[in-house]
Amino acid sequence: MSTSPRPAAVRRDWGHDETGCTILHIDMDAFFASCEIARHPELKGRPVIIGTGTRSVVSAASYEARPFGVNSAMPVATARRLCPDGVFLPVDMAYYRGVSRQVFEVFGQVTDHIERVSVDEGYMDVSAALRRWDSPTAIGAWIRTEVERRFGLTCSVGVASNKLIAKLASTNAKPDGMLLVPKARQAEFVQLLPVRSIPGIGPASARRLEQWGVTDVRQLAALAEQDIAEATGSTAQARRLYLAARGIDERKVVPYTPEKSIGSEHTFDVDATDADKVTGLLLHCCDTVASTLRRRGLTARTITVKLRFADLAYATKTMTLERPTSTAGVMYPHSVRILERMLGMPEGSAARGAMLPRPIRLAGVSVSGLGDAATTPVQASFDDLLAEDDGGSVPQHMNRAERALDSIRERFGTDSVRLGLRT
Protein backbone atom coordinates (compact mmCIF):
# COMPACT_ATOMS: atom_id res chain seq x y z
CA MET A 1 0.00 0.00 0.00
CA SER A 2 1.43 3.32 -1.06
CA THR A 3 2.05 5.99 1.57
CA SER A 4 3.94 8.34 -0.76
CA PRO A 5 2.91 12.02 -0.66
CA ARG A 6 0.20 12.82 -3.23
CA PRO A 7 -0.39 16.57 -3.74
CA ALA A 8 -3.79 17.33 -5.24
CA ALA A 9 -2.20 19.44 -8.01
CA VAL A 10 -0.66 16.41 -9.73
CA ARG A 11 -3.96 14.55 -10.06
CA ARG A 12 -5.31 16.88 -12.71
CA ASP A 13 -5.68 16.06 -16.41
CA TRP A 14 -2.25 16.54 -17.99
CA GLY A 15 -3.46 16.23 -21.57
CA HIS A 16 -4.03 13.42 -24.03
CA ASP A 17 -0.83 13.24 -26.09
CA GLU A 18 0.26 9.61 -25.75
CA THR A 19 3.19 9.86 -28.15
CA GLY A 20 6.09 7.84 -26.76
CA CYS A 21 4.14 6.89 -23.61
CA THR A 22 4.55 3.15 -23.88
CA ILE A 23 5.37 2.34 -20.25
CA LEU A 24 2.57 1.34 -17.89
CA HIS A 25 2.90 0.88 -14.14
CA ILE A 26 0.08 -1.16 -12.62
CA ASP A 27 -0.37 -1.06 -8.86
CA MET A 28 -3.08 -3.10 -7.14
CA ASP A 29 -5.13 -1.09 -4.65
CA ALA A 30 -4.68 -2.21 -1.00
CA PHE A 31 -3.98 -5.64 -2.47
CA PHE A 32 -3.91 -7.93 0.58
CA ALA A 33 -6.97 -6.29 2.12
CA SER A 34 -8.78 -6.27 -1.24
CA CYS A 35 -8.07 -9.99 -1.71
CA GLU A 36 -9.64 -10.72 1.67
CA ILE A 37 -12.71 -8.62 0.86
CA ALA A 38 -13.04 -10.39 -2.50
CA ARG A 39 -13.29 -13.79 -0.79
CA HIS A 40 -15.30 -12.41 2.15
CA PRO A 41 -17.80 -9.99 0.51
CA GLU A 42 -19.47 -9.37 3.87
CA LEU A 43 -16.39 -7.28 4.79
CA LYS A 44 -17.00 -4.76 2.02
CA GLY A 45 -17.21 -1.23 3.39
CA ARG A 46 -15.54 -2.15 6.69
CA PRO A 47 -12.01 -1.17 7.77
CA VAL A 48 -10.00 -4.32 7.00
CA ILE A 49 -6.45 -4.49 8.35
CA ILE A 50 -4.01 -7.27 7.47
CA GLY A 51 -1.81 -8.10 10.42
CA THR A 52 -2.32 -9.81 13.77
CA GLY A 53 -0.18 -10.44 16.81
CA THR A 54 0.94 -8.10 19.53
CA ARG A 55 4.32 -7.41 17.90
CA SER A 56 3.44 -7.64 14.23
CA VAL A 57 3.12 -4.77 11.78
CA VAL A 58 0.31 -3.88 9.39
CA SER A 59 0.88 -5.44 5.96
CA ALA A 60 -2.06 -3.68 4.28
CA ALA A 61 -5.21 -1.77 5.14
CA SER A 62 -8.38 -1.15 3.16
CA TYR A 63 -9.20 2.42 2.19
CA GLU A 64 -11.91 2.44 4.85
CA ALA A 65 -9.15 2.06 7.46
CA ARG A 66 -7.06 4.99 6.15
CA PRO A 67 -9.16 7.80 7.75
CA PHE A 68 -8.31 6.30 11.14
CA GLY A 69 -4.62 6.86 10.41
CA VAL A 70 -3.80 3.20 9.77
CA ASN A 71 -0.90 2.65 7.36
CA SER A 72 1.36 -0.21 6.30
CA ALA A 73 4.40 -0.96 8.50
CA MET A 74 2.56 0.49 11.50
CA PRO A 75 2.60 -1.72 14.63
CA VAL A 76 -0.61 -3.73 14.85
CA ALA A 77 -1.00 -2.59 18.46
CA THR A 78 -1.09 1.02 17.25
CA ALA A 79 -3.58 0.15 14.50
CA ARG A 80 -5.88 -1.50 17.07
CA ARG A 81 -5.76 1.62 19.19
CA LEU A 82 -6.53 3.89 16.23
CA CYS A 83 -9.19 1.62 14.75
CA PRO A 84 -10.66 -0.56 17.51
CA ASP A 85 -13.59 -1.65 15.33
CA GLY A 86 -11.37 -2.74 12.44
CA VAL A 87 -11.38 -6.29 11.11
CA PHE A 88 -7.88 -7.67 11.75
CA LEU A 89 -6.92 -10.67 9.62
CA PRO A 90 -3.70 -12.74 9.44
CA VAL A 91 -1.45 -12.56 6.39
CA ASP A 92 -2.19 -15.35 3.88
CA MET A 93 0.68 -15.06 1.42
CA ALA A 94 -0.12 -18.31 -0.37
CA TYR A 95 -3.55 -16.95 -1.26
CA TYR A 96 -2.26 -13.51 -2.26
CA ARG A 97 0.46 -15.01 -4.46
CA GLY A 98 -2.11 -17.23 -6.16
CA VAL A 99 -4.34 -14.25 -6.95
CA SER A 100 -1.28 -12.28 -8.09
CA ARG A 101 -0.31 -14.98 -10.59
CA GLN A 102 -3.79 -14.85 -12.09
CA VAL A 103 -3.73 -11.05 -12.28
CA PHE A 104 -0.38 -11.07 -14.05
CA GLU A 105 -1.80 -13.60 -16.52
CA VAL A 106 -4.25 -10.87 -17.51
CA PHE A 107 -1.32 -8.51 -18.15
CA GLY A 108 0.25 -11.28 -20.22
CA GLN A 109 -2.68 -11.18 -22.63
CA VAL A 110 -1.40 -7.77 -23.75
CA THR A 111 2.35 -8.37 -23.89
CA ASP A 112 5.05 -10.62 -22.50
CA HIS A 113 7.25 -7.57 -21.84
CA ILE A 114 6.31 -7.40 -18.14
CA GLU A 115 8.56 -6.63 -15.19
CA ARG A 116 7.07 -7.98 -11.99
CA VAL A 117 8.26 -5.75 -9.15
CA SER A 118 6.33 -7.41 -6.33
CA VAL A 119 3.22 -9.44 -5.68
CA ASP A 120 1.02 -6.40 -6.31
CA GLU A 121 2.77 -4.19 -8.86
CA GLY A 122 4.59 -4.35 -12.17
CA TYR A 123 5.69 -2.48 -15.29
CA MET A 124 4.67 -3.17 -18.87
CA ASP A 125 6.35 -2.00 -22.06
CA VAL A 126 3.46 -2.00 -24.54
CA SER A 127 5.41 -0.75 -27.58
CA ALA A 128 4.88 -3.95 -29.57
CA ALA A 129 1.29 -4.37 -28.34
CA LEU A 130 0.22 -1.10 -29.98
CA ARG A 131 -0.08 -2.94 -33.27
CA ARG A 132 -3.22 -4.55 -31.85
CA TRP A 133 -4.40 -1.83 -29.48
CA ASP A 134 -5.50 1.72 -30.17
CA SER A 135 -3.37 3.36 -27.48
CA PRO A 136 -1.56 2.80 -24.17
CA THR A 137 -4.51 4.25 -22.23
CA ALA A 138 -6.85 1.82 -24.00
CA ILE A 139 -4.66 -1.00 -22.68
CA GLY A 140 -4.72 0.49 -19.18
CA ALA A 141 -8.51 0.83 -19.27
CA TRP A 142 -8.92 -2.77 -20.44
CA ILE A 143 -6.63 -4.09 -17.68
CA ARG A 144 -8.54 -2.21 -14.99
CA THR A 145 -11.87 -3.50 -16.30
CA GLU A 146 -10.71 -7.11 -16.65
CA VAL A 147 -9.07 -7.29 -13.23
CA GLU A 148 -12.21 -5.98 -11.54
CA ARG A 149 -14.52 -8.23 -13.58
CA ARG A 150 -12.52 -11.42 -12.98
CA PHE A 151 -11.31 -10.95 -9.43
CA GLY A 152 -13.36 -8.17 -7.86
CA LEU A 153 -10.16 -6.16 -7.37
CA THR A 154 -9.20 -2.67 -8.46
CA CYS A 155 -5.85 -1.38 -9.66
CA SER A 156 -4.39 1.98 -10.55
CA VAL A 157 -2.43 2.60 -13.75
CA GLY A 158 0.21 5.17 -14.61
CA VAL A 159 1.01 5.79 -18.29
CA ALA A 160 4.22 7.61 -19.24
CA SER A 161 7.39 7.47 -21.30
CA ASN A 162 9.53 5.95 -18.54
CA LYS A 163 9.32 3.85 -15.39
CA LEU A 164 9.79 6.68 -12.87
CA ILE A 165 6.96 8.84 -14.18
CA ALA A 166 4.67 5.84 -14.76
CA LYS A 167 5.10 4.76 -11.13
CA LEU A 168 4.53 8.27 -9.78
CA ALA A 169 1.47 8.56 -12.02
CA SER A 170 -0.09 5.34 -10.75
CA THR A 171 0.56 6.42 -7.14
CA ASN A 172 -1.25 9.68 -7.76
CA ALA A 173 -4.09 7.94 -9.61
CA LYS A 174 -5.00 5.90 -6.53
CA PRO A 175 -7.39 4.46 -5.73
CA ASP A 176 -8.91 2.83 -8.82
CA GLY A 177 -7.74 5.39 -11.36
CA MET A 178 -5.49 5.98 -14.34
CA LEU A 179 -3.22 8.94 -15.03
CA LEU A 180 -1.41 9.77 -18.28
CA VAL A 181 1.58 12.12 -18.15
CA PRO A 182 2.60 13.21 -21.68
CA LYS A 183 6.30 13.07 -22.43
CA ALA A 184 6.54 16.83 -22.93
CA ARG A 185 5.15 17.51 -19.45
CA GLN A 186 6.96 14.94 -17.33
CA ALA A 187 9.44 17.44 -15.83
CA GLU A 188 6.59 19.79 -14.91
CA PHE A 189 4.72 16.87 -13.35
CA VAL A 190 7.54 15.53 -11.18
CA GLN A 191 8.58 19.00 -9.99
CA LEU A 192 5.22 19.47 -8.26
CA LEU A 193 6.01 16.57 -5.92
CA PRO A 194 7.75 16.47 -2.53
CA VAL A 195 11.28 15.09 -2.75
CA ARG A 196 10.19 12.07 -0.66
CA SER A 197 7.97 10.99 -3.58
CA ILE A 198 11.00 9.90 -5.63
CA PRO A 199 11.58 6.17 -5.08
CA GLY A 200 14.79 5.55 -3.18
CA ILE A 201 14.72 8.73 -1.11
CA GLY A 202 14.20 7.61 2.46
CA PRO A 203 14.08 9.61 5.70
CA ALA A 204 17.89 9.89 5.99
CA SER A 205 18.37 11.19 2.43
CA ALA A 206 15.43 13.54 2.85
CA ARG A 207 16.96 15.01 6.01
CA ARG A 208 20.31 15.56 4.29
CA LEU A 209 18.62 17.28 1.36
CA GLU A 210 16.52 19.39 3.71
CA GLN A 211 19.75 20.75 5.20
CA TRP A 212 20.40 22.14 1.72
CA GLY A 213 16.95 23.72 1.64
CA VAL A 214 15.49 20.98 -0.59
CA THR A 215 12.06 19.65 0.33
CA ASP A 216 10.43 19.36 -3.11
CA VAL A 217 11.59 18.21 -6.53
CA ARG A 218 11.51 21.72 -8.01
CA GLN A 219 14.16 22.76 -5.49
CA LEU A 220 16.12 19.58 -6.24
CA ALA A 221 16.09 20.45 -9.95
CA ALA A 222 17.73 23.80 -9.14
CA LEU A 223 20.83 22.07 -7.70
CA ALA A 224 23.85 21.14 -9.79
CA GLU A 225 24.65 17.45 -9.88
CA GLN A 226 27.83 18.07 -7.86
CA ASP A 227 25.78 19.80 -5.14
CA ILE A 228 23.40 16.82 -4.97
CA ALA A 229 26.40 14.50 -4.61
CA GLU A 230 27.71 16.60 -1.73
CA ALA A 231 24.28 16.69 -0.10
CA THR A 232 23.64 12.95 -0.37
CA GLY A 233 27.21 11.70 -0.08
CA SER A 234 26.82 9.54 -3.18
CA THR A 235 27.77 10.34 -6.76
CA ALA A 236 25.67 7.44 -8.07
CA GLN A 237 22.57 8.63 -6.24
CA ALA A 238 23.27 12.20 -7.31
CA ARG A 239 23.20 11.21 -10.98
CA ARG A 240 19.91 9.36 -10.54
CA LEU A 241 18.29 12.23 -8.64
CA TYR A 242 19.58 14.85 -11.09
CA LEU A 243 17.82 12.99 -13.91
CA ALA A 244 14.71 12.21 -11.84
CA ALA A 245 14.22 15.90 -11.01
CA ARG A 246 13.88 16.45 -14.78
CA GLY A 247 11.50 13.55 -15.25
CA ILE A 248 14.19 11.39 -16.88
CA ASP A 249 14.63 7.68 -16.16
CA GLU A 250 16.88 5.58 -18.40
CA ARG A 251 15.96 2.19 -16.91
CA LYS A 252 14.37 -0.36 -19.23
CA VAL A 253 11.53 -2.72 -18.45
CA VAL A 254 13.19 -6.05 -17.63
CA PRO A 255 10.75 -8.85 -18.47
CA TYR A 256 12.12 -11.51 -16.11
CA THR A 257 14.50 -11.61 -13.20
CA PRO A 258 15.29 -15.12 -11.92
CA GLU A 259 14.38 -15.60 -8.28
CA LYS A 260 17.52 -15.59 -6.15
CA SER A 261 16.18 -16.88 -2.84
CA ILE A 262 13.11 -18.21 -1.06
CA GLY A 263 12.57 -17.72 2.65
CA SER A 264 10.22 -17.84 5.61
CA GLU A 265 10.54 -16.11 8.98
CA HIS A 266 8.39 -15.30 11.99
CA THR A 267 8.50 -12.97 15.01
CA PHE A 268 7.76 -14.56 18.38
CA ASP A 269 5.00 -13.03 20.50
CA VAL A 270 7.41 -13.27 23.44
CA ASP A 271 11.20 -13.46 23.07
CA ALA A 272 12.24 -17.14 22.98
CA THR A 273 14.69 -18.29 25.65
CA ASP A 274 14.62 -22.06 25.09
CA ALA A 275 15.89 -23.89 22.03
CA ASP A 276 12.74 -26.01 21.56
CA LYS A 277 10.71 -22.97 20.63
CA VAL A 278 13.25 -21.79 18.06
CA THR A 279 13.88 -25.20 16.52
CA GLY A 280 10.14 -25.71 16.23
CA LEU A 281 9.90 -22.48 14.27
CA LEU A 282 12.87 -23.47 12.09
CA LEU A 283 11.05 -26.71 11.25
CA HIS A 284 7.96 -24.77 10.22
CA CYS A 285 10.09 -22.42 8.10
CA CYS A 286 11.94 -25.32 6.43
CA ASP A 287 8.61 -27.00 5.66
CA THR A 288 7.24 -23.80 4.11
CA VAL A 289 10.37 -23.16 2.06
CA ALA A 290 10.63 -26.76 0.84
CA SER A 291 6.98 -26.80 -0.19
CA THR A 292 7.53 -23.58 -2.15
CA LEU A 293 10.58 -25.05 -3.89
CA ARG A 294 8.65 -28.14 -4.97
CA ARG A 295 5.67 -26.11 -6.14
CA ARG A 296 7.95 -24.01 -8.34
CA GLY A 297 9.99 -26.96 -9.59
CA LEU A 298 13.21 -25.75 -7.95
CA THR A 299 16.02 -27.09 -5.79
CA ALA A 300 18.38 -25.19 -3.49
CA ARG A 301 22.00 -25.70 -2.52
CA THR A 302 22.51 -23.03 0.17
CA ILE A 303 20.70 -22.62 3.51
CA THR A 304 20.74 -19.42 5.56
CA VAL A 305 19.41 -19.02 9.10
CA LYS A 306 18.44 -15.53 10.23
CA LEU A 307 18.02 -14.43 13.85
CA ARG A 308 16.92 -11.21 15.43
CA PHE A 309 17.68 -10.78 19.11
CA ALA A 310 15.88 -8.95 21.90
CA ASP A 311 18.09 -5.88 21.37
CA LEU A 312 16.97 -5.85 17.68
CA ALA A 313 20.43 -6.87 16.42
CA TYR A 314 20.42 -9.23 13.40
CA ALA A 315 22.65 -12.19 12.63
CA THR A 316 22.79 -14.60 9.69
CA LYS A 317 24.86 -17.67 8.92
CA THR A 318 24.98 -19.72 5.73
CA MET A 319 25.82 -23.31 4.83
CA THR A 320 26.27 -24.78 1.35
CA LEU A 321 25.07 -28.36 0.91
CA GLU A 322 26.94 -31.05 -0.97
CA ARG A 323 23.83 -31.78 -3.02
CA PRO A 324 20.82 -29.58 -3.92
CA THR A 325 17.54 -30.39 -2.20
CA SER A 326 13.87 -29.48 -2.02
CA THR A 327 12.95 -31.32 1.19
CA ALA A 328 12.56 -30.04 4.73
CA GLY A 329 13.91 -33.37 5.95
CA VAL A 330 17.31 -32.33 4.60
CA MET A 331 17.11 -28.61 5.39
CA TYR A 332 15.94 -28.81 8.99
CA PRO A 333 18.86 -30.71 10.60
CA HIS A 334 21.30 -28.37 8.85
CA SER A 335 19.37 -25.31 10.03
CA VAL A 336 19.59 -26.55 13.64
CA ARG A 337 23.36 -27.06 13.28
CA ILE A 338 23.65 -23.53 11.88
CA LEU A 339 21.63 -22.18 14.84
CA GLU A 340 23.96 -23.88 17.31
CA ARG A 341 27.05 -22.47 15.60
CA MET A 342 25.55 -18.96 15.51
CA LEU A 343 24.92 -19.05 19.26
CA GLY A 344 28.09 -20.92 20.21
CA MET A 345 26.09 -23.87 21.57
CA PRO A 346 27.49 -27.44 21.73
CA GLU A 347 26.39 -29.62 18.83
CA GLY A 348 23.14 -31.41 19.62
CA SER A 349 22.23 -29.14 22.54
CA ALA A 350 19.52 -27.28 20.62
CA ALA A 351 17.85 -30.58 19.73
CA ARG A 352 17.81 -31.44 23.44
CA GLY A 353 15.96 -28.23 24.30
CA ALA A 354 18.80 -26.36 25.99
CA MET A 355 18.37 -22.78 27.17
CA LEU A 356 19.54 -20.17 24.70
CA PRO A 357 22.47 -17.90 25.55
CA ARG A 358 20.50 -14.92 24.16
CA PRO A 359 16.74 -14.34 23.88
CA ILE A 360 15.56 -14.50 20.26
CA ARG A 361 12.85 -12.24 18.87
CA LEU A 362 12.69 -13.54 15.29
CA ALA A 363 13.97 -16.59 13.43
CA GLY A 364 13.81 -17.67 9.82
CA VAL A 365 15.26 -19.85 7.08
CA SER A 366 16.00 -18.96 3.48
CA VAL A 367 17.55 -20.91 0.63
CA SER A 368 19.53 -19.78 -2.39
CA GLY A 369 21.61 -21.31 -5.14
CA LEU A 370 18.35 -22.19 -6.84
CA GLY A 371 18.17 -24.53 -9.83
CA ASP A 372 15.57 -26.17 -12.02
CA ALA A 373 14.65 -29.49 -10.41
CA ALA A 374 14.08 -31.07 -13.82
CA THR A 375 17.57 -30.26 -15.08
CA THR A 376 19.71 -30.09 -11.91
CA PRO A 377 21.85 -33.24 -11.66
CA VAL A 378 21.79 -34.82 -8.21
CA GLN A 379 24.55 -37.35 -7.64
CA ALA A 380 23.58 -40.22 -5.35
CA SER A 381 25.58 -40.53 -2.15
CA PHE A 382 27.24 -43.77 -1.01
CA ASP A 383 24.47 -44.20 1.59
CA ASP A 384 21.83 -43.76 -1.12
CA LEU A 385 23.39 -46.50 -3.22
CA LEU A 386 23.53 -48.88 -0.25
CA ALA A 387 19.89 -48.14 0.55
CA GLU A 388 18.55 -48.93 -2.92
CA ASP A 389 18.06 -52.60 -2.04
CA ASP A 390 15.93 -51.54 0.93
CA GLY A 391 13.56 -49.50 -1.19
CA GLY A 392 15.35 -46.18 -1.18
CA SER A 393 17.32 -43.83 1.07
CA VAL A 394 15.97 -41.65 3.86
CA PRO A 395 16.09 -38.50 1.66
CA GLN A 396 14.15 -40.33 -1.05
CA HIS A 397 11.54 -41.49 1.46
CA MET A 398 11.28 -37.95 2.85
CA ASN A 399 10.85 -36.51 -0.62
CA ARG A 400 7.94 -38.86 -1.31
CA ALA A 401 6.40 -38.19 2.09
CA GLU A 402 6.63 -34.41 1.71
CA ARG A 403 5.13 -34.55 -1.76
CA ALA A 404 2.22 -36.45 -0.23
CA LEU A 405 1.84 -33.60 2.27
CA ASP A 406 1.79 -31.15 -0.67
CA SER A 407 -1.18 -33.04 -2.14
CA ILE A 408 -3.07 -32.99 1.17
CA ARG A 409 -2.47 -29.26 1.63
CA GLU A 410 -3.53 -28.49 -1.92
CA ARG A 411 -6.84 -30.20 -1.24
CA PHE A 412 -7.53 -29.23 2.39
CA GLY A 413 -5.48 -26.05 2.96
CA THR A 414 -1.96 -25.13 4.01
CA ASP A 415 -2.64 -25.69 7.73
CA SER A 416 -4.35 -29.07 7.31
CA VAL A 417 -1.20 -31.09 8.07
CA ARG A 418 2.25 -30.35 9.48
CA LEU A 419 5.63 -31.98 9.17
CA GLY A 420 7.20 -33.63 12.21
CA LEU A 421 10.93 -34.44 12.26
CA ARG A 422 13.69 -35.33 14.67
CA THR A 423 17.21 -33.95 14.28
Automatic annotation (TrEMBL):
Domain of life: Bacteria
Pfam families attached to this UniProt entry: HHH_5, IMS, IMS_C
InterPro entries the record matches: DNA/RNA_pol_sf, DNA_pol_Y-fam_lit_finger_sf, DNA_pol_Y-fam_little_finger, DNA_polymerase-Y, DNApol_IV, Rev_trsase/Diguanyl_cyclase, UmuC
EC class: transferase
Site, as annotated: Substrate discrimination: F32
Keywords from the UniProt entry: Cytoplasm, DNA damage, DNA repair, DNA replication, DNA-binding, DNA-directed DNA polymerase, Magnesium, Metal-binding, Mutator protein, Nucleotidyltransferase, Transferase
Similarity-based family: Belongs to the DNA polymerase type-Y family.
Name the record gives this protein: DNA polymerase IV
Organism: Bifidobacterium primatium
